[in-house]
Specification:
Layout (H helix, E strand, L loop, with lengths): L21 E2 L2 E2 L1 E2 L7 H5 L5 H11 L7 H13 L1 E4 L7 H12 L4 H7 L10 E5 L3 H7 L7 E5 L9 H14 L3 E5 L2 H5 L3 H15 L3 E5 L8 H13 L4 E3 L11 H18 L1 E2 L1 E3 L7 H14 L12 E2 L2 H15 L12
Parallel strand pairs: 3-10, 4-5, 4-12, 5-6, 6-7, 7-8, 8-9, 9-11
Antiparallel strand pairs: 1-2
Helix pairs in contact: 2-11, 3-12, 3-13, 7-9, 9-10, 10-11, 11-12
Length: 342
Amino acid sequence: MSLQPVTSAAGAAGAVQPIPVVLNGRALEPNRRIPLNVDWVEQVRVNTSAVERRAATHCARRSIKKEEQAAWLLRAIACMDLTTLSGDDSAERVRRLCAKARNPLQRHIVEGLGIEDLHLTVGAVCVYHAFVETAVKALEGSGIPVAAVSAGFPAGLSPLAERVEEIHRSVEAGASEIDIVITRAHVFGGEWQALYDEIAAFKEAAGPAHLKAILGTGDLMTLRNVARASWVAMMAGADFIKTSTGKEAVNATLPVSFTMVRAIRDYAERTGMAVGFKPAGGIRTAKQALDWLAMMKDELGRPWLEPSLFRFGASGMLADIERQLEHHVTGRYSADYRHPIA
């Protein structure tokens, strides 16, 4: 069998030329900070019932089977931030996670799919600041970036200077991506300038590292709050907007995700700049991976199926994807314990 994923470069560094980022026929640039436009924020409206109806019908709109399903699942792996953010993390666990990041599928599955030449890896490894150096060393030569959660993760309530300094330390330790968490109280109070200034300070501290702004959508109460926070984060220069820390009671959901990706689309149409999207928390199955990938393709188009503009914040999902791909190769489902992550 010779199986090709959504593109021929599912995580293979330098395998093909980057896909141009185009939306509605317009070439887009990477995002950069622009002045806060409060009018844009205040004008945001969200029809919650319409978004919820769209999310409810989304999963029933298509059926992806056989080789097409396997190809999309390979794409999901390429867009995955393989993550460990537990209180009992250790250097050895991080090293095992990095080994899995380098080789996310067992060898017999890779050979059965005929994808040896893809050199498939995950999109990044995401860890606490304390393990950045460990992850960087374990991933040396792989081209897989290390993402660090910073800025008082997960609550985001430590003093601003401490959060900024933590970002500096993570970048110095070798992190090339920084996942920060916003102060949710700024959203509740409509303090858009304060929120903008906070994210802009984080972006400046991150320097060349990509900044992912975690909105903590499960805490934001309404989809309008989610959309408004998304606009402020994008104007402040965030390279990605991300749903959740994974620690809230409610994390990534399809209604929230539709709201955020449509904010990304509207922002791109208004500014000519592209922002990435990362759903995180609660996405655990291969079926869910297909739902989110289809949403990105429908709402934003093919360029948002690249790890440069889309990531899953997940780890448990990889085991289920590996099970599904093994079934595609062998016709049999294996137990979860045969596909350890770390």
